[in-house]
Design a protein that fits this description.
Layout: E1 3-7, E2 10-13, E3 16-25, E4 28-34, H1 37-40, E5 47-50, E6 55-58, E7 60-65, E8 70-71, E9 74-75, H2 80-89, E10 92-101, H3 107-118, E11 125-132, H4 137-150, E12 154-158, H5 169-182, E13 185-189, H6 193-205, H7 213-216, H8 220-236, E14 242-244, H9 250-261, E15 266-270, H10 272-276, H11 279-283, H12 308-317, E16 323-324, H13 357-366, H14 372-386, E17 404-414, E18 434-444, E19 447-451, E20 454-455
Parallel strand pairs: 1-5, 2-6, 7-10, 10-11, 11-12, 12-13, 13-14, 14-15, 15-16
Antiparallel strand pairs: 1-3, 2-3, 3-4, 6-17, 8-9, 17-18, 18-19, 19-20
Bound molecules: zinc ion.
Zinc ion binds near residues 64, 66 and 327.
Length: about 475
């Protein structure tokens, strides 16, 4: 097998940074050497990557993506091929995508459909969560089958989107009880969709149809309320592990913090858009441009009585938020977002971001919001542990897959449709953002996939990862 040596870099893990050289044999990391030791011992390799002045970190793991998701009368525009290539460009080496079961559909057929879409098409490794959009006796049985046989150990439920993905409290409780038996994690889209739908109709009836009303009609109170309710239900089900996805608001964060104070297995993630974007600066842009930033939960106001951005960064420092994902769900403006011209409720919900998470969150390190170690922890190590992929993924250590990002802190990255943009969208959600640091080299299981500003990987290299139960529980 080919050996690769990454020399002269600084290896970063959640517990610190070390001047070490990394030896890879085939697809696996086989040794770490203190600076100079590899030379002294006469270690040779077929390929040497010089990482002088650079950080050598575990490849990013994005645990929340929606490739090819049929939604909002259309479908997310990244295929598993385009989406995983864009991910690789962003230093991401594993995605966990959301396989879909809707009301009246069969869970196992839904999962099979996702394998069909992804199989042979991914440039990096991939795993699945299963969306359960129709909880009935068969779906509950299938959940346990997926845990025991398919390497799918987490299930996403929705308290939003009545008539599409929505589960009522009784259904949620039953799914949680099933998870309490089989050990799975319940992931929750926590917004009170029933109340939101009333508000949506009231805004539309008043002629308030612009994209910004998407946010007004989904107040943070209703995210906080749903988060609270999900936590109570998880407690009733027996402290079943609960993971709140894409948290946008202080109201919800406070509920998670209170649950953690009680010692419950309650966790949460946020996404870059909730850390950087505002209703006023993005969603409320003139004309229809705000449609680019329509996602749920919505981008929040900077004039709210809560300081959502500051609170979410603080939550990341304090581990109330354990993970940063993207909720990558890309739609073009043309023919897709445009479905909501004159009616914000018809704008497909979602933004593209799988390529930019490592870049955008590194900027939080530069700005002093989180440490370099915390960047690695929230974007790679905890995602692996939370969703049962550790230590195969998420750490640079002997025996782990050689999924590695070499990061150059001395360069800059300019994001935009004519700058850095590899997702399959006709615009960039992050147009004009210029951040410190740059993806230098990316390896997926020992294979160089990005180097010298070019993509060197191939579709089909990515393998399906069967996951075990969460390794992050109290
Ligand atoms: Zn999602």
């Amino acid at each position: 097998m080919a050996r690769t040596l990454i020399k002269n870099g600084t290896v970063v893990s959640p517990t610190g940074r070390h001047d070490q050289d990394v030896l890879i044999d085939g697809e696996t990391i086989v040794a770490l050497y203190a600076r100079g030791q590899a030379d002294a011992m006469g270690v040779t390799a077929d390929k040497v990557i010089d990482a002088k002045g650079k950080y050598v970190v575990p490849g990013g793991i994005d645990v929340h993506t929606h490739m090819e998701l049929p939604f909002g009368g259309t479908a997310a525009v990244d295929t598993f091929e385009t989406g995983t290539i864009a991910a690789a460009w962003g230093g991401v080496t594993t995605i966990v995508d959301m396989a879909l079961q809707r009301y009246n559909e069969n869970v196992q057929l839904g999962l099979a459909e996702w394998h069909r879409k992804a199989g042979g098409n991914c440039a990096i490794d991939y795993a699945f969560h299963q969306i359960i959009g129709g909880i009935d006796e068969q779906a509950l049985k299938d959940m346990t089958y997926l845990v025991d046989h398919e390497g799918v150990t987490s299930f996403k439920l929705f308290m939003a989107y009545p008539g599409v993905f929505y589960s009522d409290d009784g259904q949620i409780l039953r799914a949680m009880q099933t998870a309490a038996e089989n050990g799975a994690m319940i992931m929750m889209h926590a917004e009170n969709g029933i109340a939101i739908d009333v508000l949506v109709q009231q805004y539309l009836a008043r002629g308030q149809t612009d994209p910004k009303y998407h946010s007004y009609s989904r107040p943070s109170l209703l995210e906080g309320e749903a988060t609270h309710r999900a936590i109570v239900l998880s407690k009733v089900a027996g402290n079943v592990p609960l993971y709140i996805v894409h948290m946008s608001a202080s109201d919800a964060l406070n509920e998670v913090a209170a649950a953690q104070h009680e010692g419950l297995n309650v966790f949460a993630e946020t996404c870059p858009q909730y850390l950087y974007m505002t209703l006023e600066d993005h969603l409320a842009r003139p004309g229809f441009e705000g449609a680019k930033f329509v996602c749920s939960p919505p981008i929040r106001s900077k004039h709210d009585h809560h300081h959502h951005h500051a609170d979410l960064w603080k939550g990341l420092r304090m581990n109330q938020l354990a993970i940063i994902s993207t909720d990558h769900c890309p739609f073009c403006m043309k023919d897709q977002k445009e479905l909501g011209l004159g009616n914000f409720s018809k704008i497909p919900n979602g933004m593209g971001g799988v390529e930019h998470r490592m870049e955008l969150i590194y900027q939080g390190v530069v700005q002093g919001e989180i440490s370099l170690e915390r960047w690695v922890e929230t974007c790679a190590t905890t995602p692996a542990r939370m969703f049962g992929m550790y230590p195969q993924k998420g750490i640079i250590a002997p025996g782990s897959d050689a999924d590695i990002l070499v990061w150059d802190p001395t360069k800059k990255t300019k994001i935009g449709i004519n700058d850095k943009h590899h997702m399959n969208m006709d615009h960039s959600s992050w147009e004009g953002f210029e951040v410190d640091g740059k993806v230098d080299t990316v390896l997926s299981r020992g294979m160089v996939v990005v180097e010298n500003d070019s993509f060197k990987g191939r579709k089909g290299h990515g393998k399906y990862i069967k996951r075990s139960l969460s390794q992050y529980l109290h």
